[in-house]
Amino acid sequence: MSVRKLCCQGCGADLEVDESIRFVSCNYCGARLEIIRDASTTHSKLLDKIERNTVEMAGELKVIRLQNDLEQLDREWQAERSKYLITNKRGVVSEPSSAGAVVGGVVVVVFGIIWTVGAASMGAPGFFPLFGVVFVCMALFGIVSSLNKAGALKEGESGYQIKRRRLLDQIENARSGR
User: Fold this and answer.
1) How far apart, in whole angstroms, are the C-alpha atoms of residue 38 and residue 13?
2) Which of 21, 85, 104, 168 is 20–30 Å from 66 (CA)?
């Protein structure tokens, strides 16, 4: 067996290494080294630096995965959110609001009541007052439907914000190494 003299890549101390040894620790600085044997040379390579880089890369990979999860969550929320949006007669898309649903519904209910009372007091045939009752029923259905839609949107957005906050916290923790 032949023994070779090498230099520690951590502190520069002399090392004596048997040819059968592949890994060694420096007696002076404690650096862990890999012994590399090429056709023409034998030298040492510092393993701690490689391990540190590996740990850093694993942390960065975790951050990237969490960022991808965050982007996917955002895309999924946009798709879900679009189910709750309403479009008016001019094609303008907006979020349903509880106040708007109630105000619009009350206006239609009042119109339906006025129609029904007016048609009945004039002695109109039975189907004319019935139109007013239909307006009232449609308005009540519209109010309930809009309130449900607005509530579902608010609940969905709340859940989305909670999940998003958790992911942002996980990203921050991964970046800081916790």
Assistant:
1) 21
2) 85
